[in-house]
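Recall the central idea of this unit: under ordinary conditions, the amino acid sequence of a chain determines the structure it adopts. In this exercise we apply that idea directly, starting from the sequence alone.
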Amino acid sequence: MDVLPNMPPASLAIPRLIAHRGAKANAPENTLAAFARAREEGALWVEFDVKLTADGVPVVIHDEMLERTTDGRGAVRSTSLAALKRLDAGAWFAPAFRGERVPTLVEALDLFARLDMGFNLEIKPCPGREVETARTTIAVLDAHWPANRPAPVLSSFKAEALAAVRDLTPRYALGYLAEKLGQGWIEAAQRLGCKTVHPGWHSLTEKQIGAAKAAGFPLLVWTVNEPARARQLLAWGVDALITDNPGDLAAAIER
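Accordingly, the structure predicted from this sequence is:
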C-alpha cells in the first residue's frame, strides 16, 4: 500500500507541552482546578478524557469506575449526572481540593474559552458506547466550542469512535492514540482519517518518529515527565509532549 502524505489542518497549532488531565501532578486530575492550575503553570493546551453518564451526558473522567478519583462507588456508565455531581472529586488528592466536582464537557469548554486554552480531548468510551460517546461529544463541541477558538484534536484508542467522528464531520482533527506503534499503524491512521499520532513514549524509537514525520503526522507523545527523555524526544522531532507537570518540565527543558 502506498503511503500518502498526511495534511494536518492549517488551523491546527499544537504547543510543545500539553498538560495531561490538567496539571495532575499538582491538582486532582480531570477537574476544573487541574485545568486552571495547568494554565497557571504556562500550559496552553490540556489533554483530558470524556465518558458518558447513565443519562448520556459527556463528563470529564478517566476511569470506568468512580472509586479512584471520587468518593463514590460503582461505574460511571451506571451513574446519573445528578448523582455524579454530588460526589467529591478533589479530597482524595489533598484537603485543599475538597468539594471539587467531576466537570461536564460543557463546563470544561467554558473554562478553556475563558482561559484561552486549546485541548486534546480523548474519547474514552465505556465498552459498547464507542459510537454513542463520539456522536454525543461532537454534538456538544459543535454547540459550545466556537469556530474562532483554537482547533482541538480528538483522539481515542477506539477505532469505532474515531470512525464515527470521521463520518460525522471534517471540523475536528483526529488523533491516532496507541500504547506503541505496531505494524501497519500508518495505514490504520490514514484509514481513520487521523491527522496526528499519539504514542506512548516507552517504546517509541527515533526511526518510528522519522516514519511518522515522513508521512506528515505531528507526534503528541504521552506521558513524558522526565526532563532527559523530554529533551531526547524533542531532539528526535516530536512535536508535543503530554505531561503531568507542565510547569516543572518546561523549566527543566529550557535549562
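Residues 1-5 have pLDDT under 50 and may be disordered.
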